[in-house]
Each structure stands twice: as C-alpha cells, then as structure tokens.
Amino acid sequence: MSKSRKINRMLTEQEEQRPPRQRRRIRSAGGNADDEAADAETEIEEAEIEEAEVVGNEQQQQQVRMDDGKSFRITFPDFPGGPGTFEAAAKFCYGVRVELTPWNVAPLRCAAEYLEMTEEHAEDNLAARADAYLAQSVLLHPGKATRALKSCEELLPHAEELGIVDRCVEAIAARSSSSRSWVDDLAVLGLHMYKRVMAAMAAREDARATEAMESCLVSYARATLPGLSRSMRWRRASAPVSSEVEQKDLLEAVVASLPADKCSGRVVTAKFLFALLRTAHILRASDEARAALERKAATQLEQATLEDVLIPSYSGAAETLYDVDCVERIVRHFLSDEELGEDEASSAAAITEEEAARTTASRPSAVEMVQVGKLVDNYLAEVASDANLKPAKFCELALALPDHARIYDDGVYRAVDIYLKAHPRLTAEERDRVCGVVDCRKLTVEACTHAAQNERLPLRAVLQVLFFEQLQLRRAIAGTLLASTGAPRQQQQRAAALRHAAGPSETWRTTAVQESQVLRVDMDGMRSRVQGLERECSSMRRAIKKIDGRDDDAAGSPGSADAAASSWRSRYGCKFSTQARDAVVSRASRMGMSP
Prior knowledge:
Layout: H1 5-16, H2 33-38, E1 49-55, E2 59-65, E3 71-76, H3 82-93, H4 105-114, H5 126-136, H6 142-151, H7 158-161, H8 164-174, H9 191-202, H10 207-224, H11 244-256, H12 270-283, H13 287-298, H14 306-309, H15 324-346, H16 353-362, H17 364-383, H18 391-398, H19 410-422, H20 428-435, H21 445-452, H22 459-501, H23 504-554, H24 560-572, H25 578-590
Antiparallel strand pairs: 1-2, 2-3
Helix pairs in contact: 3-4, 4-5, 6-8, 8-9, 10-11, 11-12, 12-13, 13-15, 17-19, 21-22, 22-23
C-alpha cells in the first residue's frame, strides 16, 4: 500500500496502538532484498486482502492479517465508488495493470483523492493517470464525457468537489455539434445531470449548438418516455424504467428545455411536439407545461397531419372522444401569430396597394394558412361523427379560421354533411347554425350538385346553393360573351393599324375584308346563342309537361306546377335551371309547403 499515503498512515497508527508483544514494525517502501530477509519476522503480509465488508451505514472495511493470526481492520466510512473501485485501486498499489475506461475513470479519480494517491506521495500515481486519461480521451468526445458524467451521479459530492462534473458538462456542450452519433447516450443520464447539460448547451449562442440541443431533446424524450407516440415504441435498453411521477418530471424538464424561438422543424417536428402534448395529457402534466406545448405546437401546425391532432380526451369531465378544446386553442395560437406578423408588416414603411397585395399573396404564411384550413376541415370531418360533440363547439372550430384559409368550402361542407347524418335529432335552429359555417359561394360544381340533392340540408341552405350556382352560371355566360365580343374589337384595332400603315390604294380592299370577317363572327355568335335558347326552351317545355302530367294525376289541378314555379321565382327573386327547379318544387310539395 506504498502508493496510498492514507492507508500507510492508518496502518502505522494501528501498529503503534498494539501492545508491545504484538507490535510489528511496518517495513518501509525503500528496503532492498537483504532487508527483507532480515526483517521477515516483522513484515505485514499486505498482499492478503481478505474481504471488503459493508458494516453499518455502508462503511467500507479492509482487513489485513498478520503472521500470528492477528489482523488490521481499516474502516472507510464514505469511500467513493464501492468495493469494485477499492479493489482496482489496491491492484494499482501492487503494480497490477488497471485499464481506464469512461465508466471507471471518475470513480478511480475520486478514490485516488480519498486514498491520497497523489504525485506528492509517489510518482506516476493513480490521480495523475486518471487526470491524464480524462483530458486526453474522455473530454475530447461528448459520448465518452456523457458516460463519465453518468458515473459521477453515484460519486457526489466527491466528483463535484474535484470538478469532474463541470468538466464533463462543459465538454458535452462544447463538442455537441461535432456529430450526432452520441446523442442517444444521453438517455443514461438522470434528470439532474440532464438539466445541467441542457442549461450549458442553451447558454451557447450558436445555431449548430441549438440544432444539436434539439437532437438531444428528441433522443432523450424518446428513450425515457415510453409510448411517446403511436409510432415511437422503441426504448433504449440502458434507459431506466421510470415511475409515472418520474416520467411526469422528465416530460416537464423536456418541455422547459425546448428553445424559446420557433424550432427548425428538421429535428423537433410537429409530430414530436404533438406526441409530447398527447403524453402530457396522459401523465396529467402541469397546466403550464401543457400550455407551453400548445403554443409550441401552434408554430408548426401547418406541418401536422390528421393523426397528430387527434388527441384523445383523457379527462373524466370531457364528453367527446377527442379533445376538441385543445385543438381549438392551438388553432387560435396559430392565428394569433399570424395576426402579430400582419401587425408588424402594417407598421412598416408605407407601400402601394398593388405591392401590398403582391406581398401578401407571395407570403409563406398564406400557404401555411391554407394548409391549416385543410387540416381543420379534415379534423372536423373526423370528429363530426361523435354523438357527444355539441353544435356550438363544432361551429366554433369551423368558424375559427378566416375566409382566406379556405379556397373552396368543399371540406367543411363534407364535415357538415357527416355531422348532420350523425346528429339526426337537431332542431331547425341548430341545423341552420351548423349549415351556416359553409360559404355557398365557394363550393365547387360537384359540391353544389351534391348539396342540391342532399335531403339532410335545410331548404334555406339548398336554395342558397341553387341561387349562387345560378349566379355563377350567369357570370360564366357573361364572361364568354365578353370574350366573343372582345375579339372583333381587337380585330378592328389591328385593321385600323394596317390601314394607317398601308397606302391609299390598299385602304378600300383592307376595309372590306375586315368588315366581312367581323360580320361573319357576329353571325356565328348569334346563331350559337339562338340555338342555345332553343334548346333551353325545349327542355323547359318538356319539364312543364312532366309537372303538369304529375300534378293532374295526383291532385287533378292542371297548371299548379307553373304556378308553383312562378311563385318560387317571385318570392326568391332568382331564376333556377330546369333540373334544380324541379327538385326544389317537388321537395317543397313533399314537405307540404305552400309557395
């Protein structure tokens, strides 16, 4: 034990306390072979280390036997590292080669300090070797530093006093952006050490360090929180199994470590954030943690999928299958960010209306808004079949988005149709309110056709659909006529230019040719319009005959269909197409309504 000053001192003290007849002299370390032969009877057999017992409050005891059967009993009340570390240190004292690793270098360094195995007592001692291995190997790689930091959790406060913990934490933070192969090693750390590493990484103002911090967050959360999401079922075998309370603390620590600014989206994705939010509901995390996750998820809502936002209701007070209130809060957080961006843009330097419109149209936020609109419509269609979903909650979420979030209202119309089918006992007022979330002016032709024949819709909604469909048809016809009349005007302008460029001899001939072409175009257009009117008139005659025949058979009152149709036109002030008019009149007749 010549390399340990403390053990030599303790052995000397015990030898001096023995009675004179049992006292033995401890041979010094500098004796030669002749001295060993002369003092063989006084030598203590230090090589016979019989046992390391744990007595009382985990006190390490080392027993050294004498030639006469007596032994020394050395007690180490708070020896760092346990029996395995003491055995390695004892082997080092007797010249046995001890291999240093990231797992045992911190315990051996603490043991060397405890046993006073320093250079002041003997050259090339254990403390110097451990410090050299730390500096030249462990602290140069964040993965090795993480394993050494894990071993320090059982060496407190010794490792803290020696500065090993701080050196490992700083080494991890400084070299975190060097590679991504080591981030999975963080799963072995306890919560206290993990917080220290995250705090050190957050203190570094570096873009690469921020991305590395996000990677560490995701890896640690996946490894320590089982069942983080439907697709994240794997856990590291080295990760400890935590209780529900510990998992809640881990989750809140991960949430607190999220960057304050918007994440890059490459590492901390929308799927990961919504998975954390779902786990927070399961573990009943604090309201502050859930609110922070909702705000963070809103920053990447445009990247979320329908599966991500389908968060089940884990509260006993909730009646719906999915947490609709949570999704509505996230949508409103997203809209508040958009409104903040618009306010900042409006407070900038004044620009023209054309430039402002062009800037707004080309803004990425406009595209993100449309993506969020599609996501909300799909979510509404998914939760619409829930029998416990109230009409007010359905309408609040549907109307939360602004008008420019939906290019077409086909998605929200599909959700309304599903909701009406799943809730057949709604009152007339509730049906009108639910259908009011659909803008009939933004329905496609297919949606209008379906709505006109949808018996679940109120009659008022059907009439609005038909009216706007007729209005769109008129606008389309007007646009076609304007396009047809615009062509002759352009031709006349080109002809005038040609007459101006040509000489007097060519003027009469050019004028005659152009007038002939214009006349031919006008005649063709008139012919096509007349044919269209004839077809429309014929179809109307056939439809009227069918209505007259059906009414004569049913009630014996001829002409009632024309009267009903005329009454509908005079009441609503619009002209319906033949097929749509037939559907409305027949449906009103079945419902027993009078014009």
